[in-house]
């Protein structure tokens, strides 16, 4: 049994003998089995392509296999910078794509320190949904200026990705508008009360 790489028509193995200087390749066969396996350690993008298993019988027999090597990638939606008002909720979404299997774990870092979800600060939680595309949500409630900095998503089977969060020293517009409406209403009630006093005094 021989293995041939079609990209460069290179004979890789014949029986248990290897005919390439690339030590990542080797043929595996157990004495009690008729299966011959081509093993490629640490696969790379350049290993993508067609491989042929040739069996030296009469007539000649071959089996073709197309190998597609993918590398998981990590992305944080909304990067590289996120601006948020003080008092709002920081919602960071990390997506892991092209992974043959979901990552065993995903760690989040803040300024290179692992985020503790039960820290005294409170209001920090993570939701991870695993599948063909794995998504991890980092939620930080009641954002404050000290929450600013670099956040890093670290999957177990892919490169990490970072985003810079800037917490502005302002409260959300809804809270500001609500406060302004409250003050306007208070002034209106005071004015009506004063007019009533003048009319009935």
TrEMBL record:
GO terms for biological process: synapse organization. It holds the Pfam family Ig_3. One of its GO terms (cellular component) is neuron projection membrane. Residues 1-56, 72-164 form the Ig-like domain. SMART domains: IG, IGc2. PANTHER family: DEFECTIVE PROBOSCIS EXTENSION RESPONSE 9, ISOFORM A, DEFECTIVE PROBOSCIS EXTENSION RESPONSE DPR -RELATED. This is Ig-like domain-containing protein.
């Amino acid at each position: 049994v021989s293995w041939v790489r079609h990209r460069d028509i290179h004979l890789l193995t014949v029986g248990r003998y290897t005919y390439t200087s690339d030590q990542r390749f080797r043929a595996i066969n157990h004495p009690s089995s008729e299966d011959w396996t081509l093993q490629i350690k640490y696969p790379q993008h350049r290993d993508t392509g067609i491989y042929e298993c040739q069996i030296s019988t009469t007539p000649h027999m071959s089996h073709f296999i197309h190998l597609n090597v993918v590398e998981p990638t990590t992305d944080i939606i909304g990067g590289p910078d996120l601006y948020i008002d003080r008092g709002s909720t920081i919602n960071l979404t990390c997506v892991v794509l092209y992974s043959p299997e979901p990552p065993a774990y995903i760690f989040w870092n803040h300024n290179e320190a692992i985020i503790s979800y039960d820290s005294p600060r409170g209001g920090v939680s993570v939701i991870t949904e695993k599948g063909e595309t794995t998504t991890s949500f980092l939620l930080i409630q009641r954002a404050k200026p000290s929450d600013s900095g670099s956040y890093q998503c670290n999957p177990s089977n892919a490169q990490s990705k970072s985003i810079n969060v800037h917490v502005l020293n302002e409260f959300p517009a809804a809270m500001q508008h609500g406060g302004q409406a409250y003050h306007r209403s208070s002034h209106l009630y005071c004015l009506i009360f004063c007019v009533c006093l003048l009319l009935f005094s």
